[in-house]
Amino acid sequence: MKKRHKSKAAQLAAERDVELYVRLEFDDQVIVEEHLLRNAIERSINTLFGEIGSQSIHVEIVSYKYGTALIRTKAKMVNQVRCALAFYGMHEKRECAFRIDTISKENNEEEEEEEEDEDEERSLTMQMD
């Protein structure tokens, strides 16, 4: 079986940073302190991937405001981080849930360019009366 090589563009896309908004919610606590959120993120990744596997997943808290953190990770690690946060349901013997929202400025720009390209293709293939 031949090994497929990634293109330079695919390699660069995997190495770019992706930012996510993350919020940790408990039933009895509306706003969670930053240190508790940081601890829960680290524990969720350690729980799912173990001590060895979690060392390759880097997550950085960029900012924290009103219980919501802006975290940054590499694009190739986004799925692992999202899975770890989604599966994490107990923190310090209390039920919890992560709410995750993706920031996609670059994706929006790419989608707009694709839509423009599709419009151009449609205009080229339309029949004239």
From TrEMBL:
Keyword Chloroplast assigned: no
Spans annotated as Disordered: 103-129
GO CC list: multimeric ribonuclease P complex; nucleolus
UniProt cross-references to Gene3D superfamilies, sorted A to Z: Ribonuclease P, Pop5 subunit (3.30.70.3250)
Molecular functions per Gene Ontology: ribonuclease P RNA binding
Keywords: tRNA processing
This protein's record includes keyword Methyltransferase: no
Alphabetical list of InterPro entries matching this protein: Pop5/Rpp14/Rnp2-like, Rnp2-like_sf
Biased composition range(s): Acidic residues: 108-121
GO BP annotation list: tRNA 5'-leader removal
Family that this chain belongs to: Belongs to the eukaryotic/archaeal RNase P protein component 2 family.
Name of protein: Uncharacterized protein
Protein source organism: Adineta ricciae
